[in-house]
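Ticket #4471: structure output looks truncated?

Reporter: J.K.
Steps to reproduce: submitted the chain below (149 residues) through the standard prediction queue, then opened the result file.
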Amino acid sequence: MEVVRARGHPNVRAEHPTTLEVTKEEELTPRGDCIIAVGADKGARDLSENFKRLVRTPGAVVLMAIEVPSAGLREVVRGFGHPALTLEHPTDIVVRRSDFVCGRTVAIRADKAARDLSRELVRALRDPGAEVIVRLEVRLPPHRRPPAT
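Returned output as attached by the reporter:
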């Protein structure tokens, strides 16, 4: 599991229909309608080598839990890994509804994009003082699990 710490921003709109993004960038313009948190302590490149290896396993399921502890809110997005994921972007982590893969992508074929998040969570993500915790977890299909020790 990877834990990414970020913060909210007043310009969080979370209206994008196909993507959801967390960024290390500090500022956010209203055009960034897929961005849900800024000032992250990790981009795709900073994720552990073990996470990168697992997310590239065929059939890997990626769970992205988005938490705003001060508001007591948590929402989970479910997507899939892919062997072509490079996870090399220095500032961004992106989850996509589509099959598009680039250096920012950590999951594809997700069940939610930014616009699908609860509006209560989105309101909490607009607070610049809100700590946002993003937990990324990879679950492998049973036939891909390492043998028990």
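Triage note (M.O.): checked the attachment and the full token line is present. Residues 49-55 form the longest helix (7 residues).
Status: closed, working as intended.
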